[in-house]
Structure formats: C-alpha cells, structure tokens
Amino acid sequence: MGGAVAKQSENSGAETGKFTAELATEYVPRFGSEGWRSAFSSDVAIMISMMSTAFMAHYSAPKFNWELQNNTMARFNRVVALSFADEMKRFYDKENIAAVAQLHHV
Q1: Residue 6: is its pLDDT beyond 50?
Q2: CB 91 within 8 A of CB 101
C-alpha cells in the first residue's frame, strides 16, 4: 500500500499519463479546476448511487441464484438478462431521459 501511495503522489503533478496521447480527445479524463469542491457536485451523488446499486446487485447475486427454483446457470442467466433488459427499457424511456437531463442541468 505504501508503494501505491508513493506512486500516486509521484504522479500527482503530471499533466498527462503514459497513454493519454493515444486516446481520442473525447476520452481524455478532465478533472476540472474545482478541486475538493467538486466532491459536492450532483455528479458525485449520481456516481455514488450507481456504485452502491452495482455493489448490492453483485453482492446479492449468489443469494438470487440460491433462491431460484431449479437453479441452473441457464435459468440464472435468463433472470439476469431479463432484469437487465427491463432496466435498459426503463432507462431509455423518453420520459426518464427528459427527467434525468432536467435534473442534470439544474
């Protein structure tokens, strides 16, 4: 761990990383000039909610499989695929896109 902290502090002032020149402009990370104040933006709240949802889903997956009647991998994969498709449908619903866009620009 000490090596990772030393490496991080060693590169903290670097303008670009080793592979940044190979990235297309739209994929180059931009951290802005807000510093610690950016931790209180709505983007951070969205990221935290997404990460907590992903953690809970992955942590609970074995339990879902165990509780599935006739729990085979094929049935579990079907449940996962249907759940994912349902969430994508909800996410791409035009009303939800408008609501998310409105919240993001407030």
Answers
A1: no
A2: no
Tens of pLDDT, residue by residue over 41-96, are 788 888 888 899 889 888 888 888 899 888 899 999 998 899 889 888 887 776 66
Q: Are 71 and 65 in contact (CB under 8 A)?
A: yes
Q: Which of 35, 34, 57, 38 is nearest to 46 (CA)?
A: 38
Q: For residue 79, give the nearest of 6, 10, 87, 50 by alpha carbon.
A: 87
**Dihedral angle at the C-alpha atoms of 29, 35, 36, 41, nearest 10 degrees?**
-60
How far is Cα 38 from Cα 9, in angstroms, rounded to an integer? 20
Question: At a CB cut-off of 8 Å and minimum separation 6, what does 10 contact?
Answer: none
* Alpha carbons within 13 A on the beta-carbon side of 13: 2
